[in-house]
Amino acid sequence: MKEIGEALKEARENIGISVEEAATDLKLRPSQIENIEIGNIDAFKDIFYLKQFIKEYSKYLGLSYEDMVDEFNEYLFDYTSKISIEDIKKAKKRIEKKNKKDGRVASPYTTLKKEKTDISHAVLYGALALLILTISLLIFNQISQNDKTKDDNVLSMVY
Question: What is the pTM of this model?
Fold first, then answer.
């Protein structure tokens, strides 16, 4: 990964583009460009997005993006093949345990989204009742003000 980053950095510097300019043009953060260039794979949550960033960055710099993606795939294969069987078994057990706990069946390659918390119906109805009461009071107050103004006008005519 470091070789990929160095090739991208060298191409960027040869063209005379700053990290900030490249980040703006590619709609990335400067830190993402810097992490790609130093080969910091851990700064990215998702390998798929990192691969897309490398592809787009290579295109932007006029490099052969196919070669860069192939080189990244080779790096990724080497990187993942170094994971021990024991670590894979532990990860599988953690996922199975979590799935049993949640009562769900999920692929180890997907992440479960957090469920949104539901507002209880009582709170929702209470807020609605409060809103209706507030609007009713405002309307009643406005009507009272109008009646008082009419009474004041009638009294001023009489006197």
Answer: 0.49
DSSP state letter for 111: -
Domain residue extents for the chain: 2-81, 119-159
CATH tag, 2-81: 1.10.260.40
CA 12/CA 2 separation, integer angstroms: 15
Taking 90 as the threshold, does the pLDDT of residue 115 lie above it?
A: no
Residue closest to 38 by CA, chosen among 79, 76, 2: 2
Among 82, 85, 108, 86, which residue's Cα sits nearest to residue 95?
Answer: 108
SS3 123: helix
- Is 76 exposed, middle or buried, given 0-12, 13-18 or 19+ CB atoms closer than 10 A? middle
Give the residue among 75, 46, 62, 50 at the shortest CA–CA distance from 11. Answer: 62
Distance of CA 151 to the CA centre of its chain: 60
- What type of residue is 13? E
H-type helices in the chain, by residue range? 2-15, 19-26, 30-38, 47-61, 65-81, 85-102, 121-158
**Tens-digit pLDDT profile for residues 57-106:** 889 888 888 888 888 888 877 766 666 778 778 888 887 877 776 666 55
Task: Evaluate the CA torsion angle 33, 35, 38, 44 in order and state its sign.
Answer: negative
Q: What is the model's pLDDT at position 49?
A: 85
